[in-house]
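Please fill in the sequence for the structure shown.

STRUCTURE ENCODING:
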């Protein structure tokens, strides 16, 4: 099917036939095991691939997100629980500060039901640069992002804390088209609806242990393969099917859960009397897409630069960690820009924030010199 579609075109039997596929571990040779159709990888496998040739594993991960179940878990991605706890404390301080201003809206859940930090990436970079660098120097986050999106991706993050008694979300698909009404969706040809899933990758870092009774994310493997899914997820019959067939996996602090944004999913109900479930939700955008949140990357770079420079000078960041932090904190794509004032004089594209940050650290610029160049870049882009 192609062209323009409507809600009348959705088919629950066609959807169910896709969702009832099985996952065979032999089709994904790097995975450790398959649980409830979900691929489980060991972090050491990804690290070994980074140290040699990562392309075979990147290809496997990409296939898993589209042709496979659409969702995977990386166990022990953060082996240092104390590191995760330190960054959780950063989040707790931000939550406490923002609680004084009242609760904001939430996606697919009642406003104020959970603890939510919007734009957590920028807030953490500015308020706790040491912790930010320690946390985001983990190269496995970028490896997963590049497997689906390629280079120059743009990270945004939103922290979610589901309190005891917090209720499940509605099953849904995510940004971009998951945040549009059916009436808006009908204006997009189906090929564009399918293409939109290649513009983002959804991920989460578990900041607490998440046994099943805390309500870890409900997942419907293979549901991302249904091309009309953005039209269908509000349909009561599809919701009923989701509730009957969705799976949940317990996670441990430091595990990663990543999935195609077109996968039907929903945060679960926290049935415990006293356990708060905290996750750092990563919504990572293609260089060719529009992120959901607007970040001030210039401000982030300036906040992080002195700490990064100190780490580099003391050889406390290896090449993979340095690349990971810079990819998270700075813009890696040259466009959009003002080509009159920011022309591609030495190549096909103007200098990016990531390139500038790499150059400054390699040449050991002072903060004042780096700030001057950041301001010049800002003026060139916006003149």
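FILLED IN BY: designer on duty
SEQUENCE:
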């Amino acid at each position: 099917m192609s062209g323009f579609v409507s809600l009348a075109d959705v088919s629950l039997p066609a959807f169910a036939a896709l969702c009832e596929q099985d996952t065979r571990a032999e089709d994904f040779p790097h995975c450790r095991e398959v649980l409830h159709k979900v691929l489980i990888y060991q972090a050491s496998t990804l690290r070994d691939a980074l140290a040699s040739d990562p392309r075979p594993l990147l290809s496997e991960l990409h296939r898993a997100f589209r042709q496979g179940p659409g969702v995977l878990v990386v166990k022990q991605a953060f082996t240092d629980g104390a590191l995760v706890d330190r960054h959780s404390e950063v989040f707790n301080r931000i939550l406490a500060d923002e609680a004084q201003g009242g609760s904001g809206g939430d996606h697919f859940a009642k406003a104020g039901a959970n603890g939510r930090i919007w734009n957590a990436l920028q807030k953490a970079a500015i308020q706790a640069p040491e912790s930010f660098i320690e946390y985001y120097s983990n190269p496995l986050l970028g490896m997963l992002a590049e497997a689906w999106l390629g280079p120059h991706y743009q990270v945004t993050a939103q922290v979610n804390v589901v309190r005891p008694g917090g209720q499940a979300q509605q099953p849904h698909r995510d940004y971009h088209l998951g945040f549009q009404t059916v009436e808006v969706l009908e204006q997009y040809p189906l090929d564009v609806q399918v293409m939109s899933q290649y513009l983002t990758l959804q991920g989460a870092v578990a900041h607490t242990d998440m046994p099943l009774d805390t309500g870890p994310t409900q997942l419907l493997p293979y549901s991302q393969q249904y091309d009309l899914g953005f039209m269908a997820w509000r349909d009561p019959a599809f919701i009923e099917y989701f509730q009957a067939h969705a799976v949940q996996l317990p996670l441990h602090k430091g595990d990663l859960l990543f999935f195609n944004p077109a996968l039907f999913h929903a945060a679960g109900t926290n049935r415990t009397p006293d356990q708060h479930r905290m996750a750092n939700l990563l919504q990572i955008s293609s260089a060719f897409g529009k992120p959901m949140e607007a970040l001030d990357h210039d401000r982030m770079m300036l906040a992080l630069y002195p700490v990064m420079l100190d780490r580099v000078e003391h050889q406390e960041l290896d090449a993979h960690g340095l690349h990971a932090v810079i990819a998270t904190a700075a813009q890696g794509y040259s466009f959009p820009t003002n080509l009159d004032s920011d022309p591609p004089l030495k190549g096909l594209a103007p200098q990016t924030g990531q390139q500038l940050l790499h150059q400054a650290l390699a040449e050991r610029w002072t903060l004042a010199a780096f700030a001057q160049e950041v301001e010049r870049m800002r003026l060139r882009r916006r003149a």
